Amino acid sequence: MSFLQILSDIIGWTYFAAWSISFYPQIYENWKLKNVNGLSVDYVGLNITGYICLCIYSTAGYLDQSLEVGTIHPEDLAFAYHGLLCTIIIIGQMIFYPLGDNKLSIYIIAVLVFLWTLTPIYFLLTQTFDVFHVSVSYNAYRMIGYDKLLISFIKYIPQVYWNYKRKKTLGWNIWVSLLDITGGLLSVLQTIMDQFIQDVNNEINPVKFALGLLTIGFDSILIFQHYFLYPPKKETQVMDYVTMKDNGIDDI
């Protein structure tokens, strides 16, 4: 194994750790506040579909390299399933904790219905049947990967808007974005490094590369909102929270 390959593996598992850990501050934040009103329901609704797509895309590409979806590392596969599990946990929190006026918008419902309708139809139309097995075109798996890209592009917008609407980021744990942007930077770096390693498929993984860039871009906006547009005022936030709880108001 070459030095570049070892370095790529180290970077890959580091990005896996950063992206995976990024889920837990929000899970803890929801548990601490016993309230999920700081986290956009639209964001989570898109996230669950996105991670289902990423699991299918990564599993197919990892098990069958002839699909030509680019290099899929074990850590890519591990991250996809870990992200799906954490999103399911957050959905569970949304079921048990108050949402306030936070709800799934009609626009996001339309996007989800469109994706959950179009993708299965495309899968059926691209299947090749014979007596012994069913073969699915690699374009179908690529479409699922592009579904994940579309969702990732859309999913951050509700959270950015939710922060803007409330003029605060209380309830959104900033460590989510700090760890997320770290994982995005490392993911992009590993994807670029893979192109210089001779013993792997030189075709770039377009979904992984674009996901990294999208993550960097939107997390930069969220970080800017937190530290510059709506800087946290701890004393005021704690007072507001205690006052609202005393008055029986869960929407913070």
Helix proportion? over 70%
Low-confidence stretches: 246-252
Can you count the beta strands?
A: 2
Structural class: mainly alpha
- Strands ordered across the widest β-sheet: 1-2
Blueprint of the fold:
Layout: H1 3-21, H2 23-33, H3 41-63, H4 74-96, H5 106-125, E1 127-129, E2 134-136, H6 138-166, H7 174-194, H8 206-229, H9 234-246
Antiparallel strand pairs: 1-2
Helix pairs in contact: 1-4, 1-7, 2-4, 3-4, 3-6, 5-6, 6-8, 7-8
GO biological process, one term: L-cystine transport
Transmembrane segments: 6-24, 36-59, 79-97, 104-125, 140-158, 170-189, 209-230
Protein name: Cystinosin
State the main characteristics:
mainly alpha; LC_transporter; 9 helices; disordered C terminus; two-stranded antiparallel ribbon; repeat; 252 residues; single chain
What can you tell me about this protein's structure?
This protein is mostly helical. It has one domain. Helices cover 73% and strands 2% of the residues. It contains 9 helices and 2 strands; from the N terminus they run αααααββαααα. The chain has a two-stranded antiparallel sheet with strand order 1-2. The longest helix is centred in the middle third of the chain and has 29 residues, at 138-166. The protein starts with a helix and ends in a 6-residue tail after the last helix. Its main location: membrane. The chain crosses the membrane at residues 6-24, 36-59, 79-97, 104-125, 140-158, 170-189, 209-230. One of its GO terms (biological process) is L-cystine transport. Keywords: Membrane, Repeat, Transmembrane, Transmembrane helix, Transport.
